[in-house]
Write a structure and sequence with these properties.
This protein is α/β, with parallel strands linked by helices. It has 2 domains: 129 residues, Aspartate Aminotransferase, domain 1 (Alpha-Beta Complex); 255 residues, Aspartate Aminotransferase, domain 2 (3-Layer(aba) Sandwich), CATH 3.40.640.10. It has 13 helices and 17 strands. The strands form 5 sheets. It has a 7-stranded mixed sheet, sandwiched between helices. β5, α4 and β6 form a beta-alpha-beta unit. The model has no long low-confidence stretch (mean pLDDT 96).
Length: 407
């Protein structure tokens, strides 16, 4: 293998200098949460140390400065997604909060008894449960697009499902469990032709590939900061202006109002209508350098680095008898979901942990998908810009040790 294009990026992540049991950590759990680079850590520390103030309603220098920093991040997100306006960028607690916001506003306003919400078998629980809740409330129902044997959506059935004219398609851009990348641009076009609005869960996509919401023509696009080298507890909801302007508030409180009396309240303009209360200010401000960081690395470099490691890992794991890679083998995100014959995923995860190899072991909040695959869970290794070939070698060594201990 030729040299990885982002081999020097590893030095930007101080967590990787930490030693456990006298050995470095092999971090292969980025699909759950990405490590944070120095620019993000330092920016949050600077704000909390010297710049702390609330936003939007202060009358002093620190408050004005904090508001400027906060809104500068909104512009960075707009540019990052190629949205038309910052009015279309709503800050939330994360992907889950963003989906709940859409379900409880758009769904509550437009879903009628008998209407359908179309989901897929690849969805995270965060893109299933909120829709179940609003469908139960409104008397609507869920319909589901199945996957084929390769872990990709069955497009023939997909088109058949659209014949019933669902009101909403909620679909993941990239499966967190299998790494399947959906052709959402095509699926959005299909859904719009059927009269549906589309929400795209981009949590697993935004750190690996450039996303252009206008090119996709997405009605809603959501993601979390912590999957993108940013802080916890901050997320983004992109929504088309024409849609957001006609939605009711999600929560009531400060900032989301225009005028309040005990008789009646009028609501603020978008996006502030959906941002009740004091937001996660340091989280939003810390998201800015995370966006800067991935763009500085370069999308081509990110893709090449991760795909080179994914290909290397796939080749080495397939050499081990008794281990199956579930889902697509190629044209996927840098995620490896492993079934180890004769070994429970939790046992495998514990052995790997003793080798300082950090992976995820479980159902990955995709229980319907795991049932479809016929497994209770998998061992999931997910690769990022800070990984290298030695990480993969240690993963493979750990997997062989798992087999030695249990088989």
């Amino acid at each position: 293998m030729s040299e990885l294009p982002l081999i020097k990026a590893r030095a930007d992540f101080p967590a990787l200098t930490h030693r456990v049991r006298g050995k470095p950590i092999v971090y292969l759990d980025t699909a759950a949460t990405a490590l944070k680079p120095w620019p993000v850590i330092e920016r949050i520390s600077l704000f909390n140390t010297y710049q702390t103030a609330n936003v939007h309603r202060g009358a002093h220098f620190l408050a004005d400065q904090a508001t400027t920093f906060f809104e500068e991040t909104r512009e960075k997100v707009r540019s990052f997604l190629n949205a038309e306006s910052t009015d279309e960028i709503v800050f939330t607690k994360g992907t889950t909060d963003s989906i709940n916001l859409v379900a409880q506003t758009y769904g509550k306003k437009y879903l009628q008894p008998g209407d359908e919400v179309l989901l897929t078998e690849l969805e995270h629980h965060a893109n299933i449960v909120p829709w179940q809740m609003i469908c139960e409330e409104r008397g609507a129902k869920i319909s589901v697009v199945p996957i084929d044997a390769d872990g990709r959506l069955d497009e023939k059935v997909f088109q058949q499902k659209l014949n019933s004219k669902p009101k909403i398609l909620a679909i993941t851009h990239c499966s967190n469990a299998l790494g399947t990348i959906n052709d959402v641009k095509k699926y959005i076009q299909w859904a719009h032709q059927a009269g549906a609005k589309v929400l795209v869960d981009g949590a697993q996509m935004v750190a690996n590939h450039k996303v252009d919401v206008r090119d996709l023509d997405a009605d809603f696009y959501v993601f979390s900061g912590h999957k993108l080298f940013g802080p916890y507890g901050v997320g983004v909801l992109y929504g088309k202006r024409a849609i957001l302007e006609n939605l009711p508030p999600y929560q009531g409180g400060g900032s989301m109002i225009s005028q309040v009396t005990f008789e009646k309240t009028t609501y603020n303009d978008i996006p502030y209508r959906f941002e009740a209360g004091t937001p996660n200010i340091e989280g939003v401000i810390g998201l800015g350098p995370a966006l800067d960081y991935v763009q500085k690395l370069g999308w081509d470099n990110i893709t090449l680095h991760e795909q080179m490691l994914l290909n290397y890992a796939t080749e080495k794991i397939l050499e081990i008898k008794g281990i199956t890679i579930l889902g697509p083998k190629s044209e996927k995100a840098p995620i490896l979901s492993l079934k180890i014959e004769g070994v429970h995923h939790s046992d495998a995860g514990q052995v790997l942990d003793q080798e300082n190899v950090a992976v995820r072991a479980g159902h990955h909040c995709t229980q319907p998908l795991m049932r479809k695959l016929g497994v209770p869970g998998t061992v999931r290794a997910s690769i990022s810009v800070y990984n290298n070939m030695n990480d993969i070698d240690l993963l493979v060594k750990g997997l062989r040790k798992v087999q030695e201990l249990f088989l």
